[in-house]
Amino acid sequence: MSSPKSQEQPNVLLITVDQMRFDCLSIAGHPVVETPNLDELVRSGVRFSNAYTATPSCVPARAAIFTGQSQRTHGRVGYQDCVPWNYKETLPGELAKAGYHTQCIGKMHVYPARNLMGFHNVMLHDGYLHHNRNNHNIPMREHYDQVDDYLQWLRERVPGADLLDLGLDCNASTVARPWHLAEKYHPTNWVVTQSIDFLRRRDPGKPFFLWMSFVRPHPPFDPPQAYMDLYDEADIPESIVGDWAETSDPDGAGLSPTTRRGLVPKRRLSKAIAAYYALITHLDHQIGRFLQALNEYGEQNNTVIMFTSDHGELLGDHNLFGKSLPYEGSAHVPFIVNDPGNRLGLKRGMVADQVVELRDIMPSVLEVAGVPVPKAVEGDSIWKLASAQNENGGAPPAWRSHLHGEHTSGILSTHWVTDGKEKFIWYSQTGEEQFFDLTDDPQELHNAIADEDRQERIRYWRSILIQELAGREEGYTDGMQLITGREQTAVLSHIRI
């Protein structure tokens, strides 16, 4: 039964997955991946083709979702666990204050792990986080027995079960094998099972905000057997390798099961890619399962839906794996909005090409809910970009001209700027620069940094990056040039404890 108040304020369903590439949608032209339910959300909604995560790893990406802020403001410019989350205003907190029943099920990846971040309730499965399994040096000792609700649920049904039973690593793995238990016990199914139960037990007098947050297709690559079988004989395209990529592997880094770079044995890589695609189709089918339940509860036409990922997966592109780097496979993410009740006037089936970022989720959701957007929010509401009114001519809506992204990763630390058509990259510790024309070279096969006919554009983008980095505590620029080799940090000083 739908709630009476929901006629004034719609429910909001935010679906996030972890480590899904932007191009892994059938409707976006992927030659292998099958995503029928996500395709339908696109067909009857709007897809943003130039959506990025400014800091492509789990922790900083989620900070952008929670706060609506750029990485410079929320302060997480790389991956670092165990730094307390003390943000005054958060997306679920603002909605709760406005009368929403707020719930997160799945991955939050905050610290301490049971920090509600404004939610009324959380049911957690953050995946295998090393600091929770190896916590002897952590001030706030949090073991899995305290913080992982999925594992407790699983052990009640499968005594002695553990997240390590398959022998697969939780991060940057190139090894895959099928899920070993009944599909209903898979963490992807668990998120949906608990989300459907939330529909049963929610407060019927309030609209709800449900963040359904999946760990997959993040490693381990462990799809149920039926989904692995779906891709077993598929013609898996080979990973793309640019003219700038390292093509030798003298130290055999690609042989490691948790490599970030190198030449992975061909059969192992093909199996890992197939399992990655299988995890995405499994996710798609489970999202379809939840949408059916949403309809059965009478709430589908009163629920605004958003779908995205916190970052992508390089998946062997340029002989690289995982995330954190600025290349399209890592930083470019899927972003879909859908409004079954058509209260927002979206242009159904539209593909919008403006550069949007995860910080835009918070102001967009608050606008839908009729909730004031806090002044500290730096993102913008995306609905004006997706409106059917835009097809009637006139000036396009005002929007950002570019995005500044970054990630601290030791010698591979980078800063980059893009407008979705061109991209300039600077490696802050080595001084290496790259330039890609994404219009003519969307796969970033050619580094055009030395091309004579590109020098004016390169100077332009370098100047934009200098402007973005002006005043930063690391001293990356003096306002005139980029300064290589400055000491870096994953967390800026204003949020350190």
From TrEMBL:
Domain Sulfatase N-terminal: 10-371
PROSITE patterns in the record: SULFATASE_2
GO cellular component, one term: cytoplasm
Superkingdom field: Bacteria
SUPFAM superfamilies: Alkaline phosphatase-like
GO molecular function: metal ion binding; sulfuric ester hydrolase activity
Keywords recorded for this protein, A-Z: Hydrolase, Metal-binding
Family: Belongs to the sulfatase family.
Protein name per UniProt: Arylsulfatase
